[in-house]
């Protein structure tokens, strides 16, 4: 079995990731813990609400109850990107060329690398933001759908409508699809066809609980999701994505729900975290499973692969975290 280097922190840990080769863990209290020649701590927020790794894999982008949006580097240094007093920053996103998205209320903001900020108003509260893989474009999740905005160009926004509360949004790695998590136990997707100026809907239903974790495989052939007692993995390799196709069910455990999924950075291997703290790795090709960690104190809240794909960081809502060496 792989070796696990444990790290016990206090309380709920929101996100774990590798910045370069340094594992970092961000707690809901607002502290960032780095394992860099020992444990080192950065006091970042008074209450952390959102945290993502940027596209260069070198910094975290965080938002908090203190109204701040921060960029945190692998050495623990902190750069304040925005400060909105008396607002909670509960949505952040990292984009190309150093761009950062964040929101409060009904307004999405994009801060470019030169410090310029663009604002995009919605009729309903912004629930999620994601950057397109190519071109400076964002998708904004809201009630009853998604709005697409060009950041640098003066094109009209595109509305993708579907009734219900959309709580998060992701572009496929090739930019052909958009998928949202929903308040109901379902995903919703749109196929973007720029030539035909057409969009097609995809309903991905049948989950016993809400989907809170999504992960694309390295080339975008698969989209893994939580929300069931197995990782539900939808096929996106054909031109119409998962329309009319059944998903794979990987790492099935009777009545124990998957809470987190994370694809390997180079191979079609999926790390699956469960509500009892157990972690499996499953190979897409043949469904072969490897136990990475036995059950722990709390539900897995985040999984992060190193760039080499040899290490997996994990975090939980009880603070029992660590790093798994899958080569050991």
Q: How would you explain this protein's 3D organization?
A:
The chain is mainly β and 328 residues long. The protein has one domain (3-325): YVTN repeat-like/Quinoprotein amine dehydrogenase (Methylamine Dehydrogenase, Chain H, 7 Propeller), CATH 2.130.10. 0% of the residues lie in helices and 55% in strands. The chain has strands at residues 3-8, 13-19, 22-27, 31-35, 39-43, 48-53, 59-64, 68-73, 78-83, 91-94, 100-104, 107-111, 117-121, 128-131, 137-150, 158-171, 177-182, 187-193, 198-204, 214-216, 222-225, 231-235, 248-250, 258-263, 269-274, 279-283, 289-293, 300-305, 311-316, 320-325. The strands form seven sheets. Strands 14-15-16-17-18-19 form a six-stranded antiparallel beta sheet, with no helix packed on it. The radius of gyration is 19 Å and the shape is globular. This is WD40 repeat domain-containing protein.
Overview in brief:
This is WD40 repeat domain-containing protein. The chain has 328 residues and is mainly beta.
């Amino acid at each position: 079995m792989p070796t696990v280097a444990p790290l016990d922190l206090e309380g709920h840990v929101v996100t774990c990731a590798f910045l370069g080769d340094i594992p970092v863990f961000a707690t809901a209290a607002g502290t960032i813990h780095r394992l860099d020649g020992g444990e080192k701590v950065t006091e970042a927020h008074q209450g952390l609400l959102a945290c993502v790794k940027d596209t260069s894999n070198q910094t975290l982008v965080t938002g908090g109850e203190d109204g701040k949006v921060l960029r945190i580097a692998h050495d623990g240094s902190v750069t304040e990107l925005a400060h909105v007093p008396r607002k909670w920053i509960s949505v952040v996103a990292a984009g190309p060329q150093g761009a950062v998205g964040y929101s409060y209320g009904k307004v999405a903001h994009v801060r470019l690398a030169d410090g310029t900020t663009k604002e995009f108003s919605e009729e309903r509260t912004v629930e999620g933001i994601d950057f397109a893989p190519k071109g400076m474009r964002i998708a904004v999740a809201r009630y009853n759908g998604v709005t697409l905005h060009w950041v640098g160009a003066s094109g009209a926004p595109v509305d993708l409508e579907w009734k219900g509360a959309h709580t998060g949004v992701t572009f496929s790695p090739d930019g052909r699809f958009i998928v949202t998590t929903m308040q109901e136990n379902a995903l919703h997707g749109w196929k973007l066809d720029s030539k035909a100026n057409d969009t097609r809907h995809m309903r991905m239903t049948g989950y016993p609980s809400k989907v809170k974790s999504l992960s694309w495989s390295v080339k975008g052939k698969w989209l893994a999701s939580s929300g069931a007692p197995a990782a539900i993995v939808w096929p996106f390799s054909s031109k119409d994505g998962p329309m009319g196709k059944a998903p794979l069910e990987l790492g099935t455990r009777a009545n124990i729900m998957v809470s987190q999924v994370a694809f390997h950075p180079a191979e079609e291997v999926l790390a699956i975290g469960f509500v009892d703290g157990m972690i499996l790795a499953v190979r897409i090709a043949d469904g072969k499973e490897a136990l990475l960690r036995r059950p722990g104190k709390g539900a897995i809240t985040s999984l992060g692969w190193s760039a080499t794909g040899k290490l997996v960081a994990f975090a939980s809502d009880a603070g029992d975290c660590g790093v798994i060496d899958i080569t050991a």
